[in-house]
Amino acid sequence: EIVMTQSPATLSVSPGERATLSCRASQSVSSNLAWYQQKPGQAPRLLIYGASTRATGIPARFSGSGSGTEFTLTISSLQSEDFAVYYCQQYNNWPFAFGPGTKVDIK
Amino acid sequence: QVQLVQSGAEVKKPGASVKVSCKASGYTFTSYGISWVRQAPGQGLEWMGWISAYNGNTNYAQKLQGRVTMTTDTSTSTAYMELRSLRSDDTAVYYCARAVEWFDPWGQGTLVTVSS
């Protein structure tokens, strides 16, 4: 079973700054990795799939990179609506595990 | 637009069962799978399992094997998740999501509370 880890657990960032979130898999998942954003009281929303492909309607300030076991989600210039929890998820092998999440809050 | 609409909140006693529905619209239901994910209060996301809406094949999380059953009704484009022998730690928001490999979109969530 693949275990996903994310760092940091909490990231404090000022609006307009860059945020870099990390995700690691316990074994290779190739590029079969997705990122989701979840705001309080809402369902998660797909941001990135295939490690680097933005989902429909996702702004260009969100970018994903990596393959194998190391992945990064970058938000180039944080907007007020970007403060949320971000989860990575591998879909290379059952079970499709999620990471524990990174909370991005206002500095 | 693609949309998944889930059934309403439930309150159940320990040992009971719950069945949550997820009605899909805006796409060909049998061309995708449906995954179920739950989120306990203040916690992260836990994948529960997946069902193919094409042929009904399923894959369940090992920890839920024997207690969970996922089904679909292609005549109404609806997926169902039944969880039996409920315990207090099953209290969570339950989400369905259209599953290609990634999950998009998600339903609005159904709160299931297990309490005596």
Features:
heterodimer; A: mainly beta; 6-stranded mixed β-sheet; 4-stranded antiparallel β-sheet; globular; B: 116 residues; mainly beta; 0% helix
Using a beta-carbon cutoff below 8 angstroms, give the protein chain pair with the largest interface and the number of residues from each chain.
A-B, 23 and 21 residues
Unreliable stretches of chain A, pLDDT < 50, 5 or more residues?
none
**Largest sheet entry of chain B:** 7 strands, mixed
Report the total helices of chain B: 0
- The shape of chain B, in one word, is globular
Query: Taking strands numbered 1, 2, ... along the chain, how are they ordered across the largest sheet of chain A?
Result: 2-10-9-4-5-6
What series of H and E elements makes up the topology of chain B? EEEEEEEEEEE
Helicity of chain B, in percent? Answer: under 10%
Structural class of chain A: mainly beta
Supply Rg of chain B: 13 Å
Strand element count of chain B: 11
The whole-number mean of residue pLDDT values of chain B reads 97
How big a fraction of the residues of chain B is strand?
Answer: over 45%
Percentage of helical residues of chain A?
under 10%
Give the oligomer, counting copies of the same chain as homo and different chains as hetero: heterodimer
Strand content of chain A: over 45%
Average pLDDT value of chain A? 97
